[in-house]
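hey can u check if this looks right to u? its 299 residues, i copy pasted from the old doc so theres a chance i mangled smth
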Amino acid sequence: MAHAIEVAGLTKRFGPVLAVDDLSFTADEGRVVGFLGPNGAGKTTTLRMLLGLVNPTSGRAVVQGTRYVELGDPVHTVGSVLDGGMFHPGRSGRNHLRALAKAAGISDARVDELLQLVALSDAANRRAGGYSLGMRQRLGLAAALLGDPKVLVLDEPANGLDPQGIRWLRDFLRTLANEGRAVLVSSHVLAEVAQTADDVVVINKGRSVAQAPLTEIMARSGGGMKVAGPDVRRLGDILHAAGANVTGDAAEILVKDRSGEQIGRVIAEHQLVISELAPTGSSLEEIYLELTESTGGPS
């Protein structure tokens, strides 16, 4: 089965500047993929190539196996928010969405449904130019969802959101993934990525430095998977016999080189009783700074 998003050997040069360098990764339906990297790492350039706004120097970026510019029905295939979304400041939020819907042959009923979904119904008739940055982000999300696409590409959607708004966005993205959509989201809010993403792709200087399920990255970077429960000693013996790095005692073990999914499969296979299985050790922020060699002040 094809991946919802596939980036393979993607490279982009702007004159002498190598912005993206042989980058490859995938995103699947039902998953939130956090796309991380310092400013200037090539994240936005990658997303713009995926959406057909920038031509790659080499490599390919496809949605459901097809380049964006060749999609027969892009509005109903992929939705995106780049730069907070574009809108006419003199139009109301509702009229902005209605104009986009009319161009795509989508009914006004869908507009009202989405305004409610992104909590903008009360502000729908206000001029979008007077919206806060967080409201503009939610308006952009509504526009991205007009065609009920199975793939979403979001560039820094948490910008401008207060803590309540960030929590709303977290729940919103998880809901979209649970509905079977693939959600690729770039973000600098690492604490939220740690609570939201299923998978993480980290790039630096245009190149991939890490990509794996979040639990695996957390487990392999200075920490591990903590396991506790009645059968934990037996689990430890099984994992150790299979070559895993296991430490601990009869009450709790730490497995340093297996992901939560891998350990879970062993638990299920042997029908073991386990009460806790959780990553421990380094935070995502610490891992990110280590992977990107980020030091000093803000970029």
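The domain at 5-211 is CATH 3.40.50.300 (Rossmann fold).
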